[in-house]
Design brief:
single chain; five-stranded parallel sheet; alpha/beta; 27% strand; FAD/NAD(P)-binding domain; 3 domains
């Protein structure tokens, strides 16, 4: 009788638990022992839901938790919370783990190792950055701490540092809680993943809900009280009083543990894997925010932290660990967010990214409405499409608008995935009825205008 093998999973959120679950579906407990170590207090939760928990849109924390450790144990997956992996010994096939409560350490062996260590918030190397009241937004504990600061500690002034997706969503959460909100960003616009013309629309929307913007200002430090709590954010131009600070500077792959063990990482800082989510170290797999993947438009490596990718990659790894066959092809960079009533979405490359990838591009911007103009509830939206010169291949798109604008990015993402041209997109059979769209959907109008721009450019070039 063959000896039972052991799968050790580091990290108990989307990628790790997806991998464990898929492996268990294919291999019974008498064939494969599965151990998951998680340094936090929860597994299998929605980190993307944290801003909505903080803002009170989601009142109960349990709503963000998909499954409990007990539910996984019922499926013969051993989950150990507050257990941190501190060292990987790839030659010995073991991981040194530390009990967060007792502080004791021990070695856990593995036959296969799944690294799903997620991402870590970027913290500036500035005076006071580690002060109490300065919060990253990554795990449920962060959301709990921020909500406690608002509900129990009486915070009234919030400063958000960084204008990316998390910065926008947390600014909205603070506004919904009635706080005075200021956003500071080194960049000249929020949402640097958008082009400047589209980012300007977001800036206007944020000011419209009462968020004070200080753009193009580097943060120089954080003032603290004698007891170590943050009291203000200092920029190059001013001092901003703060009861709490939210860091929205983005995240980086949490690959340090793997890198220290000699597991290869790439130029993005993410762990390098093949399409089956295998690393270049024998019997070590990785998935989720800690890995880098291939951008299907630029062809280059990217590290994009999203639960959607983490779940898919974890599923792929688990199928392969369970004896099946699956691959993860890459991403096109689709993302969506909102600031109160204003939705923002993008897919593919923006103009800067397309130029960096070596493309020559043409861009069009279309103003339209989300429904037929005469239908009650019709509101504005702006669509930008970026295409390659001559070929007309769609390289990227951005949408800013109100109700029902943002999710139109999905049709554009499908076009990118299938390497469609703007001309090909003009014939797409999209759903139409006055409550949902004008007769010409804004996406199709943008495609038509882009196709016309390509034709005009070709004629001009002779």
């Amino acid at each position: 009788m063959a000896a039972r093998e052991r799968l050790l999973v580091i990290g108990g959120d989307a990628a790790g638990m997806s991998a464990a679950s898929q492996a268990r579906r294919r291999r019974a407990a008498d064939d494969l022992d599965i151990l998951v170590v998680e340094r936090g207090d929860h597994v299998s939760y929605s980190a993307c839901g944290i801003p909505y928990f903080v803002g009170g849109v989601v009142e109960e924390l349990d709503k963000l938790i998909a499954r409990t450790p007990g539910q996984f144990r019922d499926r013969d997956i051993d989950v150990r919370l507050r257990t941190e992996a501190v060292e990987i010994d790839v030659d010995g096939g073991r991981v040194r783990v530390r009990d967060a409560e007792g502080g004791g350490e021990r070695w856990e062996s593995y036959d296969d190792l799944m690294v799903a260590t997620g991402a870590v918030p970027v913290r500036p190397d500035l005076p006071g950055a580690d002060a109490e009241g300065v919060h990253g937004v990554q795990i449920l504990g962060d959301g709990i701490a921020i909500r406690r600061a608002v509900e129990q500690e009486g915070a009234r002034r919030a400063v958000v540092v960084g204008g990316g997706y998390i910065g926008l969503e947390m600014a909205e959460a603070m506004v919904m809680r009635g706080l005075e909100v200021t956003l500071v960003d080194l960049a000249d616009q929020p949402m640097r993943t958008l082009d400047e013309d589209m980012g300007a629309v977001i800036a206007d929307a944020m000011r419209g809900i009462g968020v004070k913007l200080h753009l193009g200002e580097p943060v120089e430090g954080f003032d603290t009280s004698p007891d170590g709590h943050v009291t203000a954010v200092r920029t190059a131009n001013r001092t901003l009083p703060a009861d709490l600070v939210v860091l929205g500077l983005g995240v980086r792959p949490g690959s340090g543990l793997a890198r220290a063990a000699g597991i290869e990482t790439g130029p993005t800082g993410g762990i390098v894997t093949d399409r089956r989510m295998r690393t270049r170290t024998e019997r070590v797999w990785a998935a989720g925010d800690c890995v880098e993947t291939r951008h299907l438009v630029s062809g280059g490596p990217v590290a994009i932290s999203l639960g959607t990718h983490a779940n898919k990659q974890g599923r792929v790894a688990g199928i392969n660990l369970g004896g099946g066959y699956a691959t993860f092809p890459g991403v096109v960079g689709t993302a969506i967010s909102k600031i109160c009533q204003v939705e923002v979405a993008r897919t593919g490359l923006n103009e800067r990214e397309a130029a960096a990838a070596g493309f020559e591009t043409l861009s069009v911007v279309v103003d339209s409405t989300t429904r037929a103009g005469y239908h009650p509830g019709a509101t504005w939206m702006k669509t930008k499409m970026i295409v390659e010169r001559r070929s007309g291949r769609v390289l990227g798109a951005q949408i800013v608008g109100e109700e029902n604008a943002g999710k139109r990015v999905d049709g554009l993402a499908i076009a990118l995935w299938n390497r469609m041209t703007a001309e090909e997109m003009t014939g797409l059979d999209l759903g139409y009825a006055p409550p949902f769209s004008p007769a010409w959907d804004p996406v199709l109008i943008a495609a038509r205008k882009a196709a016309e721009a390509v034709e005009k450019d070709m004629h001009a070039a002779g």
